[in-house]
Amino acid sequence: MKWKLTGRYILSIVLVVILVVFINIFIMFALLIAQSLFNIPIFQGNETSPEDFTRQFEESINIVKNDVTITESGKKALIEKNAWIQILDENGKVIYSYRTPKGIMEKYTPADIVQMYKYQEIANTTVFVGGKTEKSIDYSYFIGIEDPSLNRYFISYDNRNIYQVVKVGGIVFIIDIFIALLIGYLFSKRLTQPLQTLINGIKRLANKDYAVHYEPKGVYKDVFHNVNFLSNQLTANEKERKKLEMMREDWIGNISHDIKTPLASIQGYAELIKDQDYQFPIEEIREYAGIIEQKSLYIKEVIEDLNLTTRLKNKALSLNKKTVNIVALLRNIVIDILNDPKYSNRNIVFHVKEEQIPAAIDEILFRRAINNLIYNAIVHNDENVQIEVIIEKKERTHLIIKDNGKGIEKKELDKIFDRYYRGTNTGDAHRGSGLGMAIAKDIIQEHKGELTISSEIGHGTTIDIKL
Fold first, then answer.
1. Per residue in 300-315, pLDDT tens?
2. pTM greater than 0.85
3. pLDDT tier at 343 (50, 70, 90 boundaries)?
4. Does domain 222-309 have CATH number 1.10.287.130?
C-alpha cells in the first residue's frame, strides 16, 4: 500500500509535467503558425523589422538615366528610423548617399561589403544590405540604423559539433530525469509516509481500536491533531456507551423485578378469588379487587413512562400548547398531591408574588413534569422534609422546587437526569420506571426551557426551571 501510494504520487507529478510541456509546445507551434499565416506580430513588435525595411526600401529608390535619387517618403522613413543610406553601382562606387556619417568609405571592394555587412564599423550602427535591378544593371545599397538595442550576430558551426552537443545534452537530460525522479521520490515519500500513517490510524479507529495518538508535526500537523481529538472523543463515547449499557441492563433488571412483583400479586389474588374451594366475604373480595386494580394501575404507569420517554427521545411527540395561568396550574398540582392520602402529612409550601403569569405550554405534559420533580423530592427524603414550590417572573419565568432534605452526592447529581438511572437514596417508597426525572427534563426542553439542579449533602436540593 505504501509503495502504491508513493508510486501514484510520482506518476501524477511526471504526467502533469509532461502534459504541461506538450501543451506549451503545442501553443508555441500554434502561435508561430498564426503569426506566419495571418501576419500577427505575436513574437515581435508592431514595427517593421530592419530586414523588411531594407528590402522594401528599394521602392523608394528612383533611377532615371543612371541618375539615382530617393523619394521624399524614403527620406522621411530614414529620418524616423535614425538611419542613413549609401547606394553603390556594380563596381562598388557610391553614387548616392543620404545622412551618412563622417569618415565613411566612398568605394567598396567585395571584401569591404562583406566586412560592412557582418560587423559594426560605426558605434551603435547596424548595417543592412539591399539591392535593386534597373535595366539589367544591379545596384546595391547599405542602410545603417543607429539603435543601441538593435544587434545582429553571425554564428558558424560544425555539424559534428552539433551531434556532439545533442549527444552530451541527451546524456545530461537522462541524468536530469533520474535526478528529478530521485527528488520526486524523496519529496513524495515525505508527503505520503504521514498519509500512510494517517490511513492506518483511521483504519484502527474504524475497527474500534481507539488507542490512536500521534505527535502533531509536519505538513499534516492539523490533521494529526484532529485524528488525536477524534480518538479521544471516540474513547470517551465508548466509555459512556459501556456505562450507559450497564445502567440500561441494571434498569431492565430493576423494572422487570418491579413489574413481576405487582404481577405476582395480581396473579395470586386472582387465583384466590377464582378458587372454588374458598368462599370469601364480599368485603374481602372487594379488598382483593382493589389491590389488583392498584397493581394494574402501577404497571400501566410504567408502560406509559416507557412509551413517553421513547417518543420524547425520538422527537416524535407533538406538543398541544395553550396559554394558561401557570400560577393556578402549579397551585392545583400542589393541592392534588396534598390531597393524596399517602402524602397528606407532607409539608409543601407554595410561594408566589403574582397571581397571573401566562405561559404557552402543553398542560398535560407540563403537569407530568412538575409532578415527577415534586414526587422525587418526596420519595427520596424523610417525612419531615419541607418542600417549597416558588414562581418568580423576571426576564424569564422561574419555577423553583427546593427542599431541605438529604441532598444528592456530586457523582449522582451528574446522572440524575439520565435514563435508566436510579439513585442510591431510593427506598421502599420509590416505585416506578426510574424514568421520571429524565421525562421531566425532556418535557421542559421540548418547551424550549432550561432545567438546572444544585444540591448539598445535608442541606437539600434546588431545581430551577426557566421558561
1. 877 887 778 777 777 7
2. no
3. confident
4. yes
- Identify whether the C-beta of residue 46 lies closer than 8 Å to the C-beta of residue 117: no
Q: What is the mean pLDDT of the chain?
A: 81
H-helix or E-strand containing 456?
strand 450-456
SS3 breakdown of the chain: % helix, strand, coil, rounded to 5? Answer: 55, 20, 30
Residue 393 has which C-alpha cell?
417572573
pLDDT at 387 over 90: yes
For residue 208, give Cα distances in angstroms to 205, 212, 231, 247, 443.
Answer: 5, 10, 10, 22, 35
User: 3-class secondary structure for 133-189?
Assistant: EECCEEEEEEEEEECCCCCCCCCCCCHHHHHHHHHHHHHHHHHHHHHHHHHHHHHHH
In terms of CATH architecture, what is 50-146? Answer: 2-Layer Sandwich (3.30)
Q: What are phi and psi of 401, to 5 degrees?
A: -120, 115
C-alpha to C-alpha distance for 231 and 209, rounded to whole angstroms: 9
Q: Give the HSE-up count for residue 349: Cα atoms under 13 Å, Cβ half-sphere.
A: 10
Question: pLDDT digits over 82-108, tens only?
Answer: 899 999 988 889 999 999 888 888 888
Looking at the chain, the domain(s) classified CATH 3.30.565.10 span 318-466
β-pairing, 125-134 vs 137-146, is antiparallel
CA 161 from centre of chain: 59
Rounded distance between C-alpha atoms, residue 221 and residue 199, angstroms:
15
pLDDT at 430: 46
CATH number of 318-466: 3.30.565.10
Nearest partner of 356 among 322, 333, 326, 394, judged by Cα: 326
Specify whether the CB–CB gap between 30 and 43 falls below 8 A: no
Residue range(s) in the chain whose domain bears CATH number 3.30.450: 50-146
- At 42-77, the pLDDT tens digits run 555 556 778 888 888 989 999 887 788 999 999 999
Half-sphere exposure of 309 (CA within 13 A, CB side): 19
Is residue 258 pLDDT above 80, yes or no? no
CB 194 within 8 A of CB 216: no
